[in-house]
Amino acid sequence: MTEIGVRDLVLASHNVGKLGELRTLLAGLPLRLRGAGEFGLDEPVESASTFVENALIKARHAARATGLAALADDSGIVVDALGGAPGVLSARYAGADATDAANIQRLLSACEGLEGAARSCRFVCVIVILRSADDPMPLIAEGSWNGRLSRVPRGSGGFGYDPVFLDAASGRSAAELGPEQKHLISHRGQALQLLRARLGRAIW
User: Fold this and answer.
1) Which of 154, 183, 186, 198 has CA atoms 20 to 30 A from the CA of 161?
2) Of 73, 74, 162, 167, which residue is the catalytic one?
3) CATH number of 192's domain
4) 80 included as an active-site residue
5) Are 126 and 46 in contact (CB under 8 A)?
6) Is 126 helix (H, G, I), strand (E, B) or coil?
7) Is 11 a member of any domain?
8) What is d(CA 180, CA 163) in angstroms, rounded to the nearest whole number?
């Protein structure tokens, strides 16, 4: 049962690492974030070429299937030397059912031979909230985190490409940063801070 004044919000993702991270970042808001797995949701086809369009596809699918407000993010790692790849294909860079390790290995192989500034990259995140599947005014927030691609995975925290993403300021991998430090500077942390501000002005 939902607490009075607290609104259920379904996360359009089966990624448990992302669910935990977003719950932490949304702490203190009158929202209860619930994962897609709780509802047995299938995965929609992410057919768009931009992060924001894919996030909207996922949010609309989750809202329509559950009847709840929905939150979705589309995020990935962008390497300019690869023409922006993996980009929106980050989660399936090594195939439709690829593991994080397989995606990382493919990226490192693609960047073999790149030196110095050619290894620069950034994490990008776009987060959207829809009050309903047909919400004409979704809340949208973006974040970007600049860094450099390491040659080998480092650290045991985080998920996705975190072990090979080196923060531009500290030189540490995203997987070596503590949760609090990561949330302050990450692409997802930036997007959530912006979203929190916009939620405060939104009509629910």
Assistant:
1) 198
2) 74
3) 3.90.950.10
4) no
5) no
6) strand
7) yes
8) 17
* Domain of residue 158, residue span: 7-201
Mean pLDDT, the chain, whole residue set: 92
The per-residue pLDDT for 62 is: 97
For residue 132 the two structure tokens come to 């309903």
What is the enclosing helix (H) or strand (E) of 70?
Answer: strand 69-78
**Angstrom distance (rounded) from CA 96 to CA 134:** 28
The answer on pLDDT for 2 being more than 70 is: no
User: What is the rounded distance in angstroms from the CA atom of residue 50 to the CA atom of residue 132?
Assistant: 22
Cα–Cα dist 176/88, whole Å:
24
| Integer Cα distance of 9 and 35 in angstroms | 9
Distance CA 129, CA 142 (A): 12
Measured distance CA(41)–CA(93) in Å, rounded: 22
